Amino acid sequence: MIRHLFKLIWNKKGAHSLLIIEIWASFMVLFGVLSLIIYNFTNYLQPIGFSYDRVWVVDLSNNQDTVGVAAKNQRIFDMISAYTEVESASRMSNNTPFSANQMNNNVTYNKISAVPDMYETDDNLYETLDLKLLAGRWYRKEDQVSKFRPVVLNKVLAEKFFQDENPLGKILSKEDKKPFKVVGIVDTFKAKGEFMSNAPAIFVQNESMSDWVQPILIRTRPGTDATFEARLVKDIAALAPGWGIEVSYMTESRQNRHKLTLIPVIIFLIISGFLLTNVALGLFGILNLNISRRRSEIGLRRAMGATGWNVTLQILGEMWTLSLFSILIGLLFAVQFPLLHVFDLAAGVYLWAMVAALLTIFVIVTLCAWYPGQQAARIHPATALHEE
Amino acid sequence: MLLNYLKIAWKVLLRHPFYTFITLFGITLTLTVLMVLTSFLDHLFGAHYPEGNRNRSLYITMMMQTDSARESVNTGPYSFQFLKRHAKTLKSAERVSIASMFGFSNSYVGGKRIKLNTKFTDADFWHVTNYKFLEGKPYNDQTIAQGERVVVITDDLKKQYFEESTESVIGKTIEIESITYKVMGVVRGGPPTRVYTYADVFFPYTAPKSNYQNAGMRGGYQAIVLAKTPGDRPEIQAEYDNAIRQIPLPAKENGFTFSVIVAKADTYFDGFLRTFLRSDNEPNRLAFYGIASLVLLMFMGLPAINLVNVNVSRMLERASEIGVRKAFGAPSQTLLGQFIIENIFITFIGGVFALGLSYLIIYYINSSGLIAYADLTINWVVFVTSLGVCLLFGLLSGVLPALKMSRLKIVDALKA
């Protein structure tokens, strides 16, 4: 049957070559857009790993003021922690969640080397961001005395380093710096939002948070509003005149992060949606015209005893074979993406995108060929042959 | 004669409304996507308010410091002092303005918070850009030297901070991070996509927190160089390159020793590519153009193939019509003329639809507030060019088969 269909198509390869190119191009466009969507969707399914509502970020900069910066830092932090509106406050390096800043460093264990996102934090971050601990504990003040810096890893990084071993108490080395000692494991930590991939992350205790001007994260009590924010800014400005103070809400910066991901996806989706509608309409039109040209052929088949269903199936089968052929060419191109690591995506994403693109093409083609196929089935052998 | 052809064309279009719709849909869609895309690119890279002088401007925005092996790299904007010494002194330029990258701040009015984008500028900033003053006037060198606490704000901020006040707000005060400033001027705001000039509030660079005193090469400042004519720009670039070469190397900043600095005065588009690609070598730029045009070709090629496909099938269907016309003595040229007119006709209808649709989309983008102060417009050059391309494809796909068929023997044509 398939060999027969191939022969039918081969006989009219000139007329079909344009159709093949069209389906091939549609497949490639679909493959691209679906890879993007599947990548973002699989990321979205992983939990973000911390809670961000009611968390504010206070960004400070000391500008020209270089006198007693550490003391001022400490006073500002103590004052913020003392407000009744503040549930918990914490200081961390400036790669705060949802910010544009990123910090990566090389960490090694037993010759396995990784470049995780590194967050230098104080002992309160665990509470302020409500992180989910899977094993061990968060670092505490007592850890400071040891000759190692205590760290907490996320699950991805722990699995990469230790596979099945118990990660707690293991020592990691970091170039020429003081080595790290693992004290705890958290689940996921996707600092750039839900659409970020679940990348390796490491939290490092910083004993001297006051020495540099660092952002302060504040978890506020429910119902706290801009009136408190204005008071906060005024109080900080009074403590440290000339300093830059900027307060932002994590919920807002999260929305901005999401927009960065979603807007390109939506634009691609709209454009490819229009393109595919265009292609589907064109395909439908061409098939319709083909049927009216092949009346005598179909009439003859009907006269020789083919049922209406047989005829519909033939039209559908021809289109399916044609699509399969185009998609095979398309797959040759698509396979290069995971093989050559064109973008830094997992091979599974491409694989799912290929399957999804293939199914979509078949659905479109079937929908387009269905009505012309039905029409062909309705051709009465007597009239068709009489016309001839 | 022409009117007659048009009448026939119209009848042909109506005879198969469905195919007409497919063809029109393809043409309209392709043109609309092209129009909106180019209009957006023009918004990003063209010379528009408040950077109307972009065509004769150069942007000094980023400095890269690296060791000779290019293993560690530090990249960022300049310090004010560096630009004052090396950019402000460019002799071949008409004017040079130094302004900070936009920063963020908040202001609080009556339990409400207003998010602010701030910028510290010198007095030349108001000459290099063409910001339109709705009220008051810009600060000048004297105001800056005296370190007066003054600001220029946008009309949008005026509306938010002074609660829709219709009176002039010149001389009124605005409190930002617990410091009070006097409003000196109100300008019409510009879109945030023009990052080198965008802000809600402009301070003289001697205002608190501007960090213009910082020594060292890198800081938070950028310069816009205005040339007398666009043709003067290569000369300025050469002068700036020369000034950079005079800097003694290797040098040390923030504990980082570097022996190479890359600092360029770029045109707006080159500067954008440099930041975007994070690299200064040619091959990368070529690769970027390659990928961009491949994606565009893919997206635009699909409707083109579709148009060709539908057209070819339709022409085959009309074989008998051609046969009859030939049998009654119509020469090939007449037939050809008819098909050309038909194609031009449908392409132009598609063009009109596309124009309408593009206007709607652009109007929506401009008024939706997706981009504040968006000023997208239709680019007529692109419109005419893409209409021409559509026509070309239409003619190739519609007229070539028709030509082939008009050469058929009458008997064969009639039989089909």
From TrEMBL, chain A:
Coiled-coil ranges per UniProt: none
Segments crossing the lipid bilayer: 21-41, 262-290, 311-337, 349-371
Domain ABC3 transporter permease C-terminal span(s) in chain numbering: 270-381
Topology relative to the membrane: Multi-pass membrane protein
Domain named MacB-like periplasmic core: residues: 37-231
GO annotation, cellular component aspect: plasma membrane
Gene Ontology molecular-function annotations: transmembrane transporter activity
Keyword line: Cell membrane, Membrane, Transmembrane, Transmembrane helix
Keyword Transport applies: no
Main location: membrane
Subcellular location: Cell membrane
Short name of any one Pfam family annotated for the protein: MacB_PCD
Family indicated by similarity: Belongs to the ABC-4 integral membrane protein family.
Protein name: FtsX-like permease family protein
Source organism per UniProt: Arundinibacter roseus
Phylogenetic lineage: Bacteria, Pseudomonadati, Bacteroidota, Cytophagia, Cytophagales
From TrEMBL, chain B:
Gene Ontology terms, MF aspect: transmembrane transporter activity
InterPro entries registered for this protein in UniProt: ABC3_permease_C (IPR003838), MacB_PCD (IPR025857), Macrolide_Exporter_MacB (IPR050250)
Spans through the membrane: 21-41, 286-308, 344-365, 377-400
Compartments it resides in: Cell membrane
Name of a matching Pfam family: FtsX
Principal place of residence: membrane
Residues annotated as domain ABC3 transporter permease C-terminal: 294-409
Keyword Transmembrane helix carried by entry: yes
GO CC annotations on file: plasma membrane
Membrane topology designation: Multi-pass membrane protein
Protein name: FtsX-like permease family protein
Every MacB-like periplasmic core domain range: 20-239
Organism: Arundinibacter roseus
Record's keyword terms, sorted: Cell membrane, Membrane, Transmembrane, Transmembrane helix
